[in-house]
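Worked Example 4.2. Read the sequence first, then its structure tokens.
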Amino acid sequence: MKQLLTLLCLCSILASCKTETKEQSNQTETISEVKQELTIAEKIAKAHGYDHWNAIGRIDFTFNVDRGENHFERKWIWEPKKNQVAFSTGGDSIVVFNRNKIDSTTIELDQKFINDKYWLLVPFQLIWDKGTTISNPVKGLAPISKKELHKIVLTYGNEGGYTPGDAYDIFYDDDFIIREWVFREGNRKEPSMATTFENYQDFNGLKIAKDHKMTDGNFNLYFSNVKVQ
């Protein structure tokens, strides 16, 4: 009888230990899942091919704006690993500078590059840029298509960068692909500009929207000669 009681107690202890170990295991898995949960910014960046970014050594692109009968363009070659930029407006004139060594002779050109590169790689800027806040996602009516999409608000701090304090209302679909956005200068309530994100193409794993159009159809900001290596 004494041996039977001892055996029952031992089984009870083993069962208790097994249950505790299982609970601890479940807690560990839960913690692991929490750690692996991506932010909205990360989900949007990954949907646009951010997993391929570390393999990219050079990006060539031409930034174009057509407004009515007027056309404007800037040609860029960017080597992100070196942080080196080459600029051309056409012809044989090329200016090369390194973004680690910006001075009074290159700061204006760097401002233009930052603007053009921002339009090209908005999804990645969500995780690259510091000093920003990103709102929780909500459902919102896209300004141009009038479709109900997911919406986040990206707001820049009042210090640092070339245009501090600006805000962007970003509209994306269920696949985390950006479809439209609203730019609000200085975080004003009224929109400064609203455009589409369309004509997506894949460049060495990066999903880039080549066209950004306004409602009236008299404006198109677009990219040509895009090469990603």
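Now turn to a second chain, presented in exactly the same format:
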Amino acid sequence: MDVRKLDRAAVLETVRVLEQAGPADWERPTPCADWTLRQLVAHMTGQHHGFAAAAAGNGADLSVWRPGDLGDDPVAAYRTAAEKVLDAFAPSTVLTREFVLPEISDTVRFPSSVAIGFHFLDHVVHGWDLARTLGVGLELDEEIAEAALVFALRVPDDERRLGDAALFRPALLAPPGADVLDLVLTTLGRSPDWTADAARRPFTAPRG
């Protein structure tokens, strides 16, 4: 399948999930360590703007990758950014371009299919982050999950996952009976068992 179609489905699902957020949800913890829901959505908004700029040949400008300003209506701000990146990826000519993605490399220019694949994988995972934060279901069909796993398995699992700025954490062991999306998550260092309630619990040192 055209990676743009996969990406579109994943991004539209993030919009659907986020539209279920209410005023009390924006300070909720998320599976992204130290990020509230508002901070996660600001990051995702900035990524949409950055990839849209990269599709137009302007990805080297670091300012376009800044977390987005969500203003008084974070859902509307996110929806607008999502529409912008989907429109940027839509022309068939985008498939002949190379993208500059400075958050990944200062020197490599990425084929469009690879660059859009990065965006696709990121928003499958962040879609799960949103859904888990809000306690709602994520609706992605098996084809999308299987494609995301192909991309996830290509991400090097090395020392680059250890720094504060790492895009993903070291891979985890998949639980017994893991489905395809669980395999995507564990491959990229996320626990499928994460819940917002557990993240809020204060740490208690073990006895003995």
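Notes for the reader: The chain is about 45% helix and 5% strand. Confidence is low (pLDDT under 50) at residues 201-208.
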